[in-house]
């Protein structure tokens, strides 16, 4: 069943393992629709105002205003808004949507991510809204290509990623992108080989992803949020927890070109009671971040190598506000490929699935 597109139905939903992403298109002028009663029109204006006039919704909903972008959808010009909340807060979101009369805007919402299946019944029984399920990886790729086509500043890369004073974030020109590898760093990780605007295969993945970083950090440091975990990691030193090559060799392992500062064994110091006692929460958080980030980089590089691909695009909310991981990835990709591979990042990092889902409305 195809959703009926009225001028008011512009939502794309991506219900992930950690975060729900809602992309909402606000037309510049809410067009008149003769089929709608004036009461409904009034209610619709109130909802539009609520969504675009606020930056926080309920206890945990946030609008990422810095990502807002003007665009054209079908025949309408307007702004795309980006809203997220923890998937665990879905019951509260459904209550909020009910109290704000959301079902007036749409009877069917295009939705992707595992939660589009998991919460399908709740939407139908509690909101009288149907979720039209869209495949998450197809949505992701569609969203990336769309955003790339409308936003000249979407993609970027880093030069000198390990030298803080020299490191620069530069615009990447995505004109001839194919083939490229897409590494989606969400709760878990999916690795896709993308060969054309609509052609890709999922070639790998790992369960050691963003939720592993956050879960381990919470368990080890008692922190309560992604922001807190990142803040701790930024202050820590992973060499306090990790065994480095130099801890084992006393220096570099020259024969195979492994520098002394390389991590030989993540958390390898923690079996030593004294070292374990000396490691701070920040050090533990930094080790978690380094372990997850380097592991994903390695898998990305190996898969790229196997496919003969040079450009690797990293997306997903694990990278949200996480310049530290982006720089580690940029360095690892460059270093281990002898400069032949490039790590590329995208500004709307975690929203592509929801964007692709929204685009189903204009087919
Ligand atoms: P999913 O679709 O699996 O939820 P995302 O791309 O949304 O995947 O990424 C989820 C990951 O993003 C989390 O595991 C965590 O590492 C990171 N993250 C970033 N911001 C937050 C946040 N506010 N709350 C929870 N996790 C966050």
Automatic annotation (TrEMBL):
Molecular-function GO term, any one: ATP binding
Origin: domain of life: Eukaryota
One GO biological process term: coenzyme A biosynthetic process
One GO location term (cellular component): nucleus
Pfam families, A to Z: Fumble
Enzyme class: transferase
Functional pathway: Cofactor biosynthesis; coenzyme A biosynthesis; CoA from (R)-pantothenate: step 1/5
InterPro entries (UniProt xref): ATPase_NBD, Type_II_PanK
Keyword annotations from UniProtKB, A to Z: ATP-binding, Coenzyme A biosynthesis, Cytoplasm, Kinase, Nucleotide-binding, Transferase
Record carries keyword Cytoplasm: yes
Catalysed reactions, semicolon-separated: (R)-pantothenate + ATP = (R)-4'-phosphopantothenate + ADP + H(+)
Record EC number: 2.7.1.33
Cellular localisation: Cytoplasm
Main location: cytoplasm
Similarity comment: family membership: Belongs to the type II pantothenate kinase family.
Protein known as: pantothenate kinase
